[in-house]
From TrEMBL:
<dbReference type="InterPro" id="IPR000551">
    <property type="entry name" value="MerR-type_HTH_dom"/>
</dbReference>
<dbReference type="Pfam" id="PF09278">
    <property type="entry name" value="MerR-DNA-bind"/>
</dbReference>
<protein>
    <submittedName>
        <fullName>Transcriptional regulator, MerR family protein</fullName>
    </submittedName>
</protein>
<keyword id="KW-0805">Transcription regulation</keyword>
<dbReference type="InterPro" id="IPR009061">
    <property type="entry name" value="DNA-bd_dom_put_sf"/>
</dbReference>
<dbReference type="InterPro" id="IPR047057">
    <property type="entry name" value="MerR_fam"/>
</dbReference>
<keyword id="KW-0804">Transcription</keyword>
<dbReference type="InterPro" id="IPR015358">
    <property type="entry name" value="Tscrpt_reg_MerR_DNA-bd"/>
</dbReference>
<dbReference type="Pfam" id="PF00376">
    <property type="entry name" value="MerR"/>
</dbReference>
<keyword id="KW-0238">DNA-binding</keyword>
<feature type="domain" description="HTH merR-type">
    <location>
        <begin position="16"/>
        <end position="79"/>
    </location>
</feature>
């Protein structure tokens, strides 16, 4: 990934958004939190983005799609920007993230099981008693009949 963000182009923020499919406000946010570098400005003071900005924003968006947290992305970008990273360092971060994703999947599978079992106990009748509401109210999973 190129890190020469100083090379100006004629891309406006709206052009960057259109090219990447990223929302304008999201680009502003990424700039504000330091994920995207401040672009150079035209003599009139307008922000001008270049190919390196497009590439970096694409990196950020792909990382977000894979569920990386903002701090994790900052860490990865910092490694790239320094140019001193090794594949082993990146792999370590990737493996940690994979562990987190797998834990979330297990949690979602547990949620799915509880919801399916509880909803299966719902009578669907016109009575106010409902196993799902009982579970939500007092957490008596598996006891709602």
């Amino acid at each position: 990934m190129s890190v020469d963000h100083g090379v100006a182009s004629d891309l406006k923020r709206s052009d960057l958004a259109r090219l990447t499919g990223c929302n304008l406000e999201t680009i502003r946010y990424y700039e504000g939190v330091g994920l995207m570098p401040d672009p150079p400005r035209s003599p009139a003071g307008h922000r001008r983005y270049g190919a390196a900005h497009v590439e970096r924003l694409g990196f950020i968006m792909r990382a977000r799609e894979l569920g990386f947290a903002m701090e994790e992305i900052k860490g990865l970008l910092s490694m790239v920007d320094r140019g001193s990273h090794t594949c082993a360092e990146v792999e370590k971060r990737g493996r940690h993230h994979l562990d987190v994703v797998r834990a979330k999947i297990r949690d979602l599978q547990n949620i799915e099981t509880i919801l399916a079992e509880t909803i299966a106990k719902c009578s669907g009748s016109d009575t106010p008693e409902c196993p799902l509401l009982t579970v939500l109210s007092d957490g008596t999973v598996g006891e709602a009949d």
